[in-house]
């Protein structure tokens, strides 16, 4: 033990003082120690999120989205508390940062509005939950399944398997479509134009049959067909169905219904316009 203490004393003799913050002397060793503690803090915070969301709450009645929210909140609480502890461990009095905080505030006012806006929007999304993990959404020209909701951005995977990073502010300031908000299924609208010489009643019946015979189309509410326009050369129909599916399966259901509709129209010599 004496040899170890002597080694520490010799090592401290080579330590270089860089600058001072208040009464705290910042040296090379204290900087390295702080960096090491920060890395450990981010690791522990990440593991705490996984522990809460995927283990502690795994067998609870909470859905995946709620568990992820609880895990994210836990992660940020660990980060805040850990950062305060690290600063105190380094001997830095946080009151010495008042002037720096004022300068940062000016910087936020001029250059970081978007970051702060997205962060606050992320907190609103996490607490109000207008969207949840697994929901099928559309915002602007982006459509896909919600994979992850972070404090600053939300990860959405489109039907082409391309991951899109969406700033959270979009979910607060823009109109958002959410096919899973009030149901576990999804809504599909299929528009069909047929030649005007076709029998509109027959077309209506064929569209309903194609929808009702698919096992993944909900019977409550039932499929409906509307004649939306009578044009000079065509009738326009819209088939509205609810599917007992979500996520990627929605696109496949849309494909299967379109194929079924085409086959029935073709078998009855009804031409598309």
Fraction of residues in H or I helices: 40-55%
Shape: elongated
Q: Tell me the radius of gyration.
A: 29 Å
Q: State which percent range the strand residues make up.
A: 15-25%
pLDDT below 50 for ≥5 consecutive residues: which ranges? Answer: none
Quickly count the domains: 3
Largest sheet descriptor: 5 strands, antiparallel
Walk me through what this model shows:
- With 273 residues, this protein is of the alpha+beta class.
- The chain has three domains: 98 residues, no CATH class; 51 residues, SH3 type barrels; 82 residues, Alpha-Beta Plaits.
- It is 49% helix and 22% strand.
- The strands form three sheets. A five-stranded antiparallel beta sheet has the order 6-5-4-3-7.
- β9 and β10 form a beta hairpin.
- The chain starts with a helix and ends in a 6-residue tail after the last helix.
- The mean pLDDT is 78.
Keywords:
273 residues, alpha+beta, SH3 type barrels, Alpha-Beta Plaits, 3 domains, five-stranded antiparallel β-sheet, three-stranded antiparallel β-sheet, 49% helix, 22% strand, elongated
Topology summary:
Blueprint: H1 2-13, E1 17-21, E2 24-27, H2 28-56, H3 64-89, H4 98-111, H5 113-128, E3 136-139, E4 142-149, E5 153-157, E6 163-167, H6 170-173, E7 176-178, E8 186-195, H7 200-212, E9 224-230, E10 234-243, H8 249-267
Antiparallel strand pairs: 1-2, 3-4, 3-7, 4-5, 5-6, 8-10, 9-10
